[in-house]
Specification:
NAD(P)-bd_dom_sf; 13 helices; Dihydrodipicolinate Reductase, domain 2; nine-stranded mixed sheet; alpha/beta
């Protein structure tokens, strides 16, 4: 298959699925083409006919049709594991949209099935991992050049969503239909990147505001403090009601600091020695000079700033290209599906912490306690059946 195009089945021809269909039909992913489309909305058949590909109203029929080598699941979050499991069990490579599941138990079930089929490619659509800025930061942090992590914070509040956004789909912003708010809809990319870059936290204490500035049952603002162990901590803040919005990531290490603004501009500051050595060896006269603002900062550190610009759209194309290359056996996956559980677990732990009012372990996360609390809210909502 190394020289063939991968035939992708798009399950769910909504905003995301439609965007992927456009990229593929325009030839922007040279090693992939549309094999078929599935959607429960019969009116989407016309779009499939225009593209010249088969259309199915049942995703299972698409998977078993022989028309596709792989599928992407662009459907409500709860359905990703169900569809992913069915595809993998029927010999079809699987790319699930983020998140891989709403709760860790269902995410783990999907990941376990994928592990039983190592001959198949299983990925998650973390398109931000293809951003050259974050790829470069990952390489820098993995190199150890900046030393150990001390603290990191991410303020990501540029997810402004007006009230009509939540009214456009009945499942949107419900516990039973979507499984949460900003943590499961907008912020999974940052939750993934944060752990990809800094490591998986050990515990979290979170304050969530449910329906704070929007008429919804789920959270529209999150403030969380995480513990990475060895004294390293982090804070994460996100919201959907900030019209101005901020996207700022800071990572402080022993030998320097990284600051990212708007996911496009990065400033990297490198200390001439690790901070504790500089602190220990600085004489009092140098300290006075520093406090008077007279010390040449270049004697302590150097900084460089790089603007990567916007790469919107290209990120999604690169995920599809990389996934097809992995199916063809020519490249490793940038975002293996198994990585998806980390963000789900962190989000679930934030919910559980807010619901219980205490710090929650991520290392030994109690997924049954989380599911029990989630089901309480689904029952109170009265719109959907409980989850198991």
């Amino acid at each position: 298959m190394a020289t063939d195009q991968v035939r992708l089945g798009i399950i769910g021809l909504g905003t995301e699925g439609g965007m992927y269909a456009t990229f593929l039909s325009e030839g922007k992913v040279p090693n992939m083409r549309i094999g078929a489309i599935a959607d429960i909305d019969e009116s989407k058949r016309e779009a499939a006919e225009k593209l010249g590909v088969p259309f199915y109203t049942d995703y299972q029929e698409l998977i078993t049709s022989g028309d596709v080598d792989a599928v992407v699941t662009t459907v409500p979050h709860y359905l990703h594991p169900e569809m992913g499991i069915y595809a993998l069990e029927h010999g079809v490579h699987t790319l699930v949209e983020k998140p891989v599941g709403v709760y860790t138990k269902q995410a783990r079930e999907l990941i376990d099935v994928a592990a039983e089929h190592p001959e198949l490619t299983f990925g998650v659509f973390f398109n931000q991992r293809t951003n050259p800025l974050y790829k470069d930061l990952k390489a820098l942090l993995d190199s150890g050049e900046l030393g150990a992590l001390r603290h990191t914070s991410w303020i990501i509040t540029n997810w402004w969503r007006p009230q009509p956004y939540y009214a456009q789909s009945s499942w949107r912003a419900t516990w039973g239909g979507e499984g949460g708010g900003v943590l499961v809809n907008q912020a999974p990319h940052q939750l993934d990147l944060w752990q990809w870059l800094c490591g998986v936290p050990k515990s979290v204490f979170a304050k969530l505001s449910f329906g704070f500035r929007r008429d919804i049952a789920v959270e529209d603002e999150v403030n969380a403090l995480v513990d990475f162990g060895d004294g390293a901590t982090g804070s994460f803040m996100t919201a959907t009601h900030d019209l101005v919005g901020t996207d700022r990531l800071e990572i402080l290490c022993d030998k320097g600091k990284i600051v990212v603004d708007e996911s496009s501009k990065v400033t990297i500051t490198r200390l001439v020695e690790d901070e504790e050595t500089l602190s220990r060896n600085m004489d009092i006269e140098t300290v006075r000079t520093l406090f008077r603002g007279e010390l040449d900062r270049e004697s302590l550190m150097t900084s460089e700033t790089k603007d990567y610009g916007s790469v919107w759209g290209q990120q999604h194309i690169e995920v599809l290209r990389n996934f097809a290359a992995a199916v063809q056996g020519t490249e490793p996956l940038l975002a293996p599906g198994g990585d998806g559980i980390h963000g789900v677990r962190l989000a679930d732990a934030m919910y559980l912490s807010a619901w219980l009012g205490r710090e929650v372990s991520i290392e030994n996360f109690d997924e049954e306690a989380y599911l029990e609390e989630l089901n309480k809210r689904i029952v109170a909502e009265g719109l959907y059946e409980t989850r198991s």
